Amino acid sequence: MQPRNMSMSGVVDLAAVKAAQEAKAKAEQARAQAAQEGGGGAVSPADLVIDVDEAGFENDVLQRSTEVPVVIDFWAEWCEPCKQLSPLLDRLAVEYNGRFVLARVDVDANQMLMQQFGIQGIPAVFAVVAGQALPLFQGAAGEAQIRQTLDQLIQVAEERFGLTGLAVDPDAGPGAVQEAPEAPAGPHDAALEAAVRALDAGDLGGAVRAYQNVLNDDPANMEAKLGLAQAELLQRVEGMDPQRVRREAADNPADVSAQIAAADLDLVGGHVEDAFGRLIDTVRRTFGDDRNAVRVRLLELFEVVGAEDPRVTAARRALARALF
C-alpha cells in the first residue's frame, strides 16, 4: 500500500497510520468491554491461525493488519523444513494470545502471492503491519530467534502504529470475532483530513501548513509528524530534473547540495538505503557547517521513514560511526 498522491514505496503509508490509530482506540475499548463481560465478544484461539488464499488476502491480511500484526507463513506440502517450522509458528500464535495473527499460505495453490512477495524459496515468513509488508526470515530458524523476531515485530507495531492486538477468549467458539466499537473522533481529525485533501490536490504548501497547525497544538501527534516530513520532502523534490540532479551528484561527490538533493530523490523513489548511504558517505567526507547540513537532512529523512524502522536503526549506527 502506498500513500495517496505520493510515490514513496517502502517508506510510510499515512492512511495506514491513521487506520492503525483508529484501530488502537477500537482495540482498547474492546479489551475493556471484554474484561467487564468476562471475555465476551473476543476472538477464539482458533481464530489466531488462519489459512489464506489470493481471493481472501485483502480482507484476511491487509484489512486485519490495521488491527493486529499478521505474520504470513509461506509453505508447501512437499517442503520438509516447513513441516518443522509451521507447527512451531502455530503454537507461538496461540501462546502470544492475540499479539499477532498467523496466516498460512500454500504457495502451490497461490503462486500469485508468492510472486508478489518476491519469494525465491520456502519456508519464508513475512509480516504485514498496517498494510505494509515486512520480511522476517527465510529458511530454517530456531525458536529463540523466532521469538526475538516476533517480540521486535510486536514492539514496532505497538510503538509506531498503535496496534495492541486482539482480545482472546479461550471459551469463545471459532469465528466469534468481536464487534469493535466506533473509534472516538480525535480533536485534530478535521485538520488532518484537510491536510490529506491538500495532498490529494497537489497543494503541498497547504498540507505543510495543516500538519504544522496540528503539531503546534499536539507536538506528539504521529500522523502529523509523518505527514509533515513527507509533505516537506515532496515539496523539495517538486520541479527537480531527476537526470540532472543525479548527474551533478555523480560528477561532484564533494558537493553537499547535490548529494542532499539526490538523497531526497532516492527516498521519494523508495530507495531508502541508497538515500541513507549517500548522506552517511557525505558526512564522512565533510566538516563543519557542510557536515552539519548533511546530518540535519539525514535526521529529517529518518523522520520520514520512522524511528523504529530497522533501516533507520542501522543508519543511525552508521552515522554515529561516521561522526565519531
Automatic annotation (TrEMBL):
It comes from the Bacteria. It comes from Streptomyces ziwulingensis. PANTHER family: THIOREDOXIN, MITOCHONDRIAL. Gene3D superfamilies: Glutaredoxin (3.40.30.10), Tetratricopeptide repeat domain (1.25.40.10). This is Tetratricopeptide repeat protein. SUPFAM superfamilies: Thioredoxin-like. Residues 43-155 form the Thioredoxin domain.
